[in-house]
Write a structure and sequence with these properties.
- This protein is of the alpha/beta class and 344 residues long.
- It is built from 11 helices and 12 strands.
- The strands form 2 sheets. It has an 8-stranded mixed β-sheet with strand order 4-1-3-2-5-6-7-8, sandwiched between helices. A 4-stranded parallel β-sheet has the order 10-9-11-12, sandwiched between helices.
- 33% of the residues lie in helices and 14% in strands.
- Strand 11, helix 9 and strand 12 form a beta-alpha-beta unit.
């Protein structure tokens, strides 16, 4: 099994729009938003590597930004949709990058562009610059992969969690190269310290109503049956803010389903259950009991569970993922510098 859209980004984007019909209707009636200048962060002149951040989510920061702490004084720059200096190590100057096709003059020395992919606006723009400048395009895996992940840009080099993930994401393409670096997010979860578990407390079910990968009739039915049968606390995903999700939350609460207190998952305790959330593997890495479950799971969900070694509810808990010999952030930094030197 591999990606549903292994090469065609436009087809993937159409699928995304079609899976979110309410969003699609709003896009049709809404006037185009004015272009917003991006922010370029620099700590030295003539950077050789450009790190690209589309969002300040935990997965994005772990995969794209944390490797900066292992680069010493290497000349690098960071491109983001806003000032993200608070997330960067050391002191950085920031300048606005106006809308346009050409790479800014300050980036003419770039030999490698590092991002989570070219499927979001900032990453897509930086990929265009990489092609203009003849720079290597490096994609760092930031989360677990389903068949509905966006395709890789032509000629990308992937820094993957595992060889299985690299092969899955490549989906038979010959223009993609890869190497395994592990997951910084899971490394941090494993090294976060002992977990204060409450074995007698209710499990926490990680919601995924926002996901385009599964029909809501499956994701909602799974959460409904599991929370009612086990007394689990429902933890909404931060993206569950649309009208339909809010309606579903209210319906659950009226029927007696309890919700987990707000806050990061790492600050909670007890076992963790979901359909295909990265949080299940993150919990297992931290030493917590974690499982997956699904009402009428599609074939791709079962393949996903198998690829990541996730245990179904009712069996032994998911074992913690294997620990790489080298911290992934260090491995990413080393690989990026080597690839940038090779592109010179």
């Amino acid at each position: 099994m591999g990606l549903r859209f292994p090469e065609d980004l436009a087809a993937w984007q159409r699928w995304q729009r079609d899976r979110h019909m309410l969003r699609r209707v709003r896009d049709l009636v809404r006037r185009p938003a004015p272009s917003t200048a991006l922010r370029l962060h620099q700590r030295s002149a003539d950077p050789v590597v450009l790190f690209v951040l589309d969002a300040t989510t935990p997965t994005a920061l772990a995969s794209v930004i944390e490797p900066l702490t292992h680069l010493g004084d290497a000349p690098v720059a960071v491109l983001a949709p806003a000032d993200v200096s608070d997330h960067l190590p050391g002191s950085w100057s920031t300048t606005a990058v106006a809308d346009g096709e050409a790479a800014p003059r300050d980036l003419r020395s770039i030999r490698a562009v590092v991002s989570a992919g070219h499927f979001l606006p900032v990453g897509n723009r930086a990929y265009g610059w990489a092609r203009q400048l003849g720079a290597r395009h490096i994609v760092v895996q930031h989360g677990l992969l389903t068949p509905f992940m966006a395709p890789l840009a032509e000629g990308s080099h992937v820094l993957a969690f595992s060889q299985e993930d690299a092969d899955f994401w490549r989906s038979g393409r010959l223009d993609i190269t890869s190497q395994t670096v592990g997951s910084q997010l899971l490394w941090k979860a494993r090294n976060a310290g002992p977990v204060m578990d409450r074995p007698d407390g209710p499990p926490i079910f990680l919601g995924q109503l926002h996901g385009a990968e599964l029909p809501r009739r499956i994701s909602a039915a799974t959460a409904t049956s599991f929370c009612r049968e086990t007394g689990a606390l429902y933890r909404p995903h931060p993206a569950e803010v649309d009208r339909v999700s809010r309606w579903q939350h209210a319906r659950w609460q009226r029927s007696g389903v309890r919700f987990a207190p707000p806050g990061p998952l790492a600050a909670s305790s007890g076992s963790v259950v979901s359909i295909f959330s990265t949080g299940v593997l993150e919990a297992a890495a931290s030493g917590r009991d974690a499982w997956v479950t699904c009402v009428r799971p599609p074939a791709w969900v079962r393949e996903f569970w198998q690829r990541y070694g996730l245990s179904e509810w009712g069996s032994a808990p998911t074992p913690p993922p294997a620990r790489p010999a080298l911290e992934p952030a260090q491995a990413i930094a080393d690989a990026v510098l080597a690839l940038a030197e090779g592109a010179s």
